[in-house]
Structures are given as C-alpha cells and as structure tokens.
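Students often ask why we bother predicting the structure of a whole assembly rather than each chain alone. The short answer is interfaces. A chain on its own may look different once its partners are present, and contacts between molecules only exist in the joint model. In this exercise we take two input lines together and write out one structure for the complete complex. Read the inputs first and try to guess which parts will touch.
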Amino acid sequence: MRLSTLKTAACGLALVAAPLAASAEDLLINGQVEINTEVQPADHMKGIVPVVRSGWTFRSPETQVLQMDDFDNPGMIFVDQGMSLWQTGDGETGESCADCHGDMAESMEGVRASMPKMNPEGTDLWTLEENINNCRTERMEADEWAWESSEMLAMTAAIGKQSRGMPVDVEIDGPAREWWERGEELYYQRVGQLDMACANCHEDNYDNMIRADHLSQGQINGFPVYRLKWGGLGSIHRRFKGCMKNIRAEPYNRGSDEFKALELYVASRGAGLDVETPSVRN
Amino acid sequence: MKRTLALAVCVAMGGSVALADMLAPADVTYGDYGAVEQSLTGTPGDPENGAQVFLARKLGNCLACHANSDMADQPFHGEVGPPLDGIGSYRTEAELRGMIINSKKTFQGTIMPAFYVADDFTRNQDKFEGETILTAQQVEDVVAYLMTLTD
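Now the answer. The structure tokens for the assembled complex follow.
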C-alpha cells in the first residue's frame, strides 16, 4: 500500500524519482523489468510478517547492483547454457526439450512461479527439478540429471527466468495441503545442537545482523541463486542444507520429502513476490 | 592447553580427581528464574579465556547475537540479542551462569542456544550427539568474563 503510493508519487515528480529508484524497494532489471520486492502478505501470512520482502532488499548495494543488469549478473551465463541444452537432443529418443515444448519463453512462462506443485496424477509433490527429470526419463529415455549438476542448475535457471517479474503463486490447497502442513511444521521445528528453527532467524529476527550477516526472510523467489560465496549457482535445497548445517543439524537430502514440503511452504511465505531468477546473493 | 595437560596427568594417576567436582549437565539445579548458584567446576573462572570463548565462532559465538563495547576492536557485532554492556552490574553471577547453561529456563522460547545441555536434540549431527556446546569450565570462564563487564 505504502509502496504503491510512493511509486505513484514518484511518477509525477522526476526529482523525487531519483532517490526512490535507488531505494531498497525498487528492483528494475535492465531498466525494463520491474520486480516487486516488497508485497503485502497473502491471507495465510497475515499476522506473521507485516511485509513480505525479497532477500534482495537486505543485501548490500554492491550485491544488489549485480542483479540490476543482465550483463553484470554472473548467473546469466548459466541461463544461456540452459537455453542451449533446451535445443539439444538427448536420450534414446534423441529428442530435445524444444522438440516438444517449442519456444521456452512461451511454454515455460510462469512455470517457476507455480512450483513446486502436485504431479499430474496428484500423487506426489514435484519440484521443478523433478518435472524436468520426469521428462528426461519418461519421455526422452535419458538419464536423470543430478539435483545439483551443472545441467540441472542451468536448466532450472533458464526456465526460472521465463517467470521473472511474475508473482510467486503456489497451490497450497487440495492434495498439496498435506505437504504444506508438513512444511509448516518443519519450518517451526527446532533442530540441531543449537536447537533453532528456520522461524527463529527468518521470521523473528529478519533485518537484524547476526554477526556479519543481515538476516532476510529466507525467501526462495530468486532460485537457483548465484552466490558470490559459492562462485556459482545453487539450488533451493542446497541453501536449506547450509542453514541446517550452521545450526549443527543433520540436513535432509536434496529431493527428500522433507525438503520438498519445506520448499512448498517457504514458497508460499513469499506469495506475491516476483520471481527474480537468477538472483545474486553474497 | 594447560588444562588438557592437567587432565592428562590426573587420568595417568589413575583417577578422575579433576572431574569429581564437575557437575554433569543433567545434575544442574536451577532456581525459579533459571539461576544456577553452584559453580559447575569449583574452579574459579578465567575471564581472559572467557573472552576468547565469547568471541570464537565454534564456541560461544556470543558476538554473533550480542553487541559488546568491550570488544569494540572486533568487527560485526550482532543485533539478535540485547547489548551486554554493563551486564556484570545488573545480573548476578548465578543468573548469568543459568543463562549460559540453559537460557530457556530464564527466557522461555528464546533463540539463544543452551550452552551446557546435552539433550536429545532433534536431528542433531552425530558428532555433537550427547555433547554440550561448551565445557563446564568454559561456562565458568564466560561467566567470569561477563562479571567484568561493569558500568
């Protein structure tokens, strides 16, 4: 609310617009794609946080700027790699993704924003990675890509980018409900020798410094993310693992039911935030 | 280093003399508000070592959450907990000991870890199973250090 008022005001006043453009709320990519990085909480988040904020708003100006122009964004070369993999035939059938799906910009638009979601049979919650691997094994008769492989990261980055600027909107009712509830439980479950839950840091203490780190809300609207610390892209589940290890907990595996449930729940906490893939973080 | 040596000597002499006075995590008794009167070791805390424990990321890492003017030369003071300036003036030794052993007894539901509790934490890593974050003497050292933070 406050935000849109500010933005409207800025449109009328060129002089005021300059400082606002540099403010933390405004992420404009290539001077073109406007990204909502602060939104009102969805119904299921009311009373939990007053404003839903992208991790971008917590980063230093030096890190933020890397995401404001695709030429500066170190994640973009992986998007390009994903685009060429899309055209490359593989597996027993020799087909490429493009053979069936055509232009990625059209067929994959909005897909990231709705993931994870129930599979077509409604029997399992599938992440983007699992949807891709299902096409590879069932439709192309090709080997699965490992969760954190360079191919999978490139493909999820390329597909994710087709949703850039579209609001996260995951289905949390119907058959997905059970998964969502499990995810919520995990989010508040204290784990590890330090005995902390995700919520202790990302809900109760976001915007506080924890030693050198400015705590964010732990949103996943920018994944796979390019982390300067990693010097490359990483998946959502890699980040979850890292946070669990830091509190001396035994992390769940990538692709485990626990992390899938947590992914759905965390995605829903960021409902309304625009997809930023590939985001850049320190 | 010195402590390890001392312990080694005791063990070599065929007894756990040094450990005899040490209070195990399960034997700690708390007052109504979580204070712990009894020293965990009977050996007075060493404030200098306590400062090291306070700083070290793999030990107390207290600075991650608490600002502390006494360590103004160190970068990155946290904001998760209150600053600890002057804490030794308004908290008693027993209160501080209790807060470090198990802050949840004083502050219900706090994010601050319990540094001398060896519970069955959910999904604890194997290498930390049954282990406390700090040793009994490290707790006493940190308490002694906090007592030096007076106005």
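Check your guess against this: Chain B has six helices and no strands.
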